[in-house]
From TrEMBL:
Gene3D superfamilies: 1.10.1740.10, Tetratricopeptide repeat domain (1.25.40.10), Winged helix-like DNA-binding domain superfamily/Winged helix DNA-binding domain (1.10.10.10). Keywords: DNA-binding, Sigma factor, Transcription, Transcription regulation. Residues 188-288 form the DUF6596 domain. This is RNA polymerase sigma factor. Residues 119-170 form the RNA polymerase sigma factor 70 region 4 type domain. It comes from Antrihabitans stalactiti. One of its GO terms (molecular function) is DNA binding. NCBIfam families: sigma70-ECF (TIGR02937). InterPro entries: DUF6596, RNA_pol_sigma-70_dom, RNA_pol_sigma70_ECF_CS, RNA_pol_sigma70_r2, RNA_pol_sigma70_r4_t2, RNA_pol_sigma_r2, RNA_pol_sigma_r3/r4-like, TPR-like_helical_dom_sf. The keyword Coiled coil does not apply. Residues 23-80 form the RNA polymerase sigma-70 region domain. One of its GO terms (biological process) is response to stress. Belongs to the sigma-70 factor family. ECF subfamily.
Length: 421
């Protein structure tokens, strides 16, 4: 039976998600320009959209796309031959590359290195955090500009502008297509891990909009993290981040009720947690901890593991959690870490112990617009029977959040406080 045009387009979308990262990575190695590589890959995608509905999806779609991309690159460089001798040399190199039918075998020695190099380019410190995230999703995730815009609730024009500026910044900085030298690796790897975790966090707790979560972003971050763990198996923090994301993602089904409203961690039905993801996360955590001293992602994964290992909320080892937060704060001091430590202390030693820590954070400028501070403070005040004060804090938190589900939840907590009074 002949596939319909719609079916072929869906097949092309699926092929693009699978093949685009390695296609762009391979082209970047060949043409030495990530912006041009993406442009050539997009040209090949347009050719697929034009030809595949009639000819059908080829047996090896990745090789087909690469062959078209290389042909376009050769044509482009030949047109510029008089102006740029370097491009002539690259075109000659491209012509000696394998034919489409030999593509997979020839690329076998390069694909992992190419993907790793592309990750380090997409997350280069010369780029802003927003640009790194957008470029990572575009080049490595195969997401369209509109999909990225919808995920972060910003305009397509804003996303497109970030991507254009990012590619221009990489070109201006003459960023080489290579894995950083050993001395540069820790800082550069941190940049990659941060970008992946930012994508995951936006999916796990959406900062704005009507949805509490955006699972598709969590899934994309997890996919990228797993790829990175395969490419850099001896880097503890890579496994630490994967462990953290696996365990956090395991709670997805339990984090909202049938109406889509948030369900707090201690009230979640743990039977709904994905125990396959938990086992994967605990395995990754063991791998991360086997390398020596724990760093921030591994410590956060250890915190998540405390909840994952507790059969019920009452079984949670809050003393250990408070100790882990103390260890994390010593490594990377932060008022947000202190706020989380306060929650753990309140669970281990009562709400007054937690409130004493929270009250020290109230006047910090960096926490003035952080909605979780009044949210936590409201919860502690509620537990202490100070219902008027709790109501005030919940209302303040509701004003600060940009997520509509969270705002409704906080206003409901404020209502409960008023009713108690």
């Amino acid at each position: 039976m002949t596939a319909t045009v719609d079916e072929t387009h869906r097949s092309i979308d699926a092929v693009w998600r699978i093949e685009s990262a390695r296609l762009i990575a391979g082209l970047t190695r060949m043409v030495h320009d990530v912006g041009l590589a993406e442009e050539l890959a997009q040209d090949a995608l347009v050719a697929a959209l034009e030809q595949w509905p009639e000819s059908g999806v080829p047996r090896n779609p990745g090789a087909w796309l690469m062959a078209i991309s290389k042909r376009r690159a050769i044509d482009r460089f030949r047109r510029q031959e008089v102006l740029e001798r370097k491009h002539t040399e690259i075109a000659r190199d491209l012509e000696t590359q394998p034919s489409a039918t030999e593509f997979d075998a020839a690329l076998e020695d390069h694909i992992e290195d190419d993907l790793l190099r592309l990750m380090f380019i997409s997350c280069h410190p010369v780029l802003s955090t927003e640009a790194r995230v957008a470029l990572t999703l575009k080049l490595l995730g195969g997401l369209k500009t509109g999909e990225i815009a919808r995920a972060f609730l910003i305009s397509e024009a804003t996303v497109a502008q970030r991507i254009v500026r990012a590619k221009r910044a990489l070109a201006d900085a003459k960023v080489p297509f290579e894995v950083p030298e050993r001395a540069e690796l820790p800082a550069r790897l941190d940049s990659v891990l941060e970008a992946i975790y930012l994508v995951f966090n936006e999916g796990y707790s959406a900062t704005a909009g009507d949805d509490w979560m955006r699972p598709e972003l969590c899934a994309e971050a997890l996919r990228l993290g797993r790829i990175l763990a395969g490419l850099m198996p001896d880097e503890s923090e890579v496994h630490g981040l994967v462990a953290l994301m696996e365990i956090q993602a395991s709670r997805t089904a339990a984090r909202t009720n049938a109406a889509g409203e948030p369900v707090l961690l201690l009230e979640q039905n743990r039977a709904q947690w994905d125990h396959i993801l938990i086992r994967r996360g605990l395995t990754a955590l063991d791998r991360a901890e086997s390398f020596g001293p724990r760093r921030k992602y591994t410590l956060q994964a250890a915190l998540a593991a405390c909840h994952a290992r507790a059969r019920t909320a009452d079984d949670t080892d809050w003393e250990r959690i408070a100790g882990l937060y103390e260890e994390l704060a010593a490594l990377e001091p932060s008022p947000i870490i202190e706020l989380n430590r306060a929650v753990a202390l309140s669970m281990a030693h009562g709400p007054a112990a937690g409130l004493a820590v929270v009250d020290q954070l109230v006047d910090l400028p960096s926490m003035k617009s952080y909605h979780l501070l009044p949210s936590v403070r409201g919860d502690l005040l509620f537990k202490l029977g100070r219902y008027d004060d709790a109501c005030t804090e919940f209302e303040k938190a509701a004003e600060l959040t940009r997520n509509e589900r969270e705002r409704a939840f906080l206003l409901d907590r404020a209502r409960q406080s008023r009713e108690q009074h």
